[in-house]
User: Fold these one by one.
Assistant:
Number 1:
Amino acid sequence: MRAVRSLTAFCLAVAMLTSCYRGPKDIKPTVHCPITERQLSRLGSAFEPLSPDELNTPWGKEFFVGVHFSKELDFYRAITSFKRAAILGQADPNARLNQIDYSICLAYFLAGKYSEVAKTFEKGLLAQTVTPNFPAFHDLLVILHESYMRLGETERASDALHYLEKAEPKSAHKAAVFAALGAADFKTLDLKAESSPYAKDLCSFKRNYQMRAKSLRKASLFSLFPGAGYLYVGQTRSAITSFLINSLFIAAATTFFIKKEFAAGIIATGFEAGWYFGGIYGATQAARRYNEELYGAQARFISEHHRLAPTLQLTYGF
């Protein structure tokens, strides 16, 4: 009983110390440059405006509402309106079903719903009827390439890139470079840099990242001394917390064993082992997140500066 009471008091003290301690959060690396309302407002439509007669049709009214929601970046309401327009337009042989389907794809793409882009394209009229004469053909290929890349469907992404290269080689080159940036594929970036007008910036980006990135191996090795791994990554608060907690558990376990309270000593040692190895894992993940955030920030900058991001390659809006 004495050992249990001692351990309980100790754990309460540690709980107070660790109440502000938070474990690592999962951060997924991404190179995503969302379009802004101002950028979208600058893009005109690839299609002729709806005529007064079209605006008076049920599908035309819904489409008109969807366009206005889209320009406010309210894509979910816009998609609902576009889908209603598609349903109502099936009864009208003059309805612009291809334009409506494309607007749905574009809205899903700008909302980051890449699986819905692929589903809408493959199950709609666009996959069956679209040709290079389609007014937004270039933008559709940009959207499909990026969507398939995000979904990991490399074969379909390559097909879209192949057609894009025929339609607009410059856009295809940018799409390939952006895809390599998103995958942190330095080998492809080196190849693309050879024929790129922004080769110097790509080389500087790679060199700067490699100089500033943290070594996961070093973070693990430094963590053999509690807190040193976090300190290496630059997380001073976590380093101090890790050092204090490990020190307290070690001191407690040692005290329990000296007093021959072996049950409490074994339990305290178990807690210490968890904190110790958890600290090694945590520092490694902290280094990984540091690298992902460093890479993402630099990649987004170069993507926006040279308009490599698909959202910045779009020629038209709604």
Number 2:
Amino acid sequence: MVAACSGPKTLSLSENSNPLTIDGNLSDWNTGNTLIRSDDHLNVYATNDSEFLYLFIDVRSARKDQAIKRSGLIVYLSDSKDNRKDKGIGFPSGSFNLLRENPGVYQSFLNDPEWNQKPANRETLQDLSENVFDRVMIVERYNNGSDTDHGFIDIEQLNVDGFEMAAGEGGRFTSIEMKIPIDGSSIYNVESDRLWIGFVVEPPRFRMQNNQYDASMRHQRGGQYGNRRQPAQNRSQQESALRRQLGEFEEWYILRLDN
């Protein structure tokens, strides 16, 4: 599920010839000409016109759906390889990420392995899970990527510059539709016929408390992805393994836009 070591694929997008209603529904898409990735977990469709890039992200598995609702799905977009992760939009925002709006609670969530065993904390996460499609996460990196800010806004606030987003209603899994200005006016500030785009799930970086990664830890962090006991690992290995269990994902493409 990670982009191949040889680098991202370069894809030429066909120009959109029919108006698309941003409603989270794939019915008005020409799916045969716009599919850019497909597997058992995630399908992505893309097209463009002279002003907008259109995306449709169709989640196809329970595991991917759970990972996205917890950690969010971030779409990074840039006209430069060097700056490709400078700005991203997380939609859904993810219940784990919404804890960031209360820094004290979020730090406890990261550092306390017993955090999720407390009923009040589980209730907090459940309440936040109901808001992941109402709040949008804005990710911005500074100082060559060494500093990262996560901010949150209501979805309507992005509509000012022509940005539109919608989640599908009533489906088994999440579907997301986006209309992104590519005339330099959006938060991405892109204006190019060659764009770098990344689809990323970034689970939190939990602070491991010991050097034995076991099934109880997976349960405490909310990752119910199996019950097999894992061998002893160092702290870095534990943290990496936990992020993988929580659905860490990153895939990049270079889009050539036909206008």
